[in-house]
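## retry 2 of 3
previous attempt timed out at serialization; input unchanged, resubmitting
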Amino acid sequence: MRRSCIVLAFLVFSLPITLQAEESSIHIRGGGSVMMEMSTAVWCDTCANHEEWIPLMVESNGERMIRVNLHSAIDDPLGNEASNFRKAWLGLTDADSTPAYHFDGLLESTPSSSRGELQRSLLDAEEDRINHEVLDVTISFNSSTVSIQALVDEPLQIESTSITLMLLEKRSAISPVDATNGKLFSNSVLKNIVSVNQNESIMYPSEWASASFISNNSIISNFTFDWPNGLDMNSTEIVIIHEKSISNGGRTTLSALSWDVEPPIGDEVFSLWVPLIVMGILIATIVYYSRKLT
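## retry succeeded, writing output
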């Protein structure tokens, strides 16, 4: 009996190590989401009015769409290099009016002014995306270092395409002094971006990540970065896009998916030690009394 208890104790206490090794990585499969990128600003009154119904529209559509807020570089504390780069890639400047909506890279001819109109733009983008690829994404956490592999096994196009990684802050606070349109927060704000293709990688902020693009009959992109300072992991969304490298006024998205970051599994595994210690005490008690009986 004593030998059985020792074996049981070994199996029980090896359990957390096994869980941590298996659950430090997650796998996501998708690609059919439509990108909705909104040019906005903290001083834009119309944008504030739209925020009354946009979150409900986004929530009701679930994985059908991915929202990204691109803030202005003019008098906007949420404006940054990543948003500047992305807006320029979409063909926007700070002289253009806000709000402006791009669906899969295509700018609406007239900005939507209601939930119904925005829903119509989503349907149009889905109809234009007759086929979409399948994105297989693996995200691994090792302390504060994150590694992401994006695989497109059967790409619709390889030449002149990029794999783009975005980090979005799901809810960014705005001080009352800066929030001249009355909105004290902004949703899905672009914070970091890296876009990599066969020839180059472009990222903002500078050198925040490493990226590679390997193509043959498929595409594999690898990204590695240390978690950015000031960005709460529990309030971050990771977006992966396979898209045409140049926005020329047409649809650019070939496939896209997103994932709401969750705390590293290590924190959850640590909490398992409490019941396991109790079990260990029980096992030790059984061993003790088994000795007395023998």
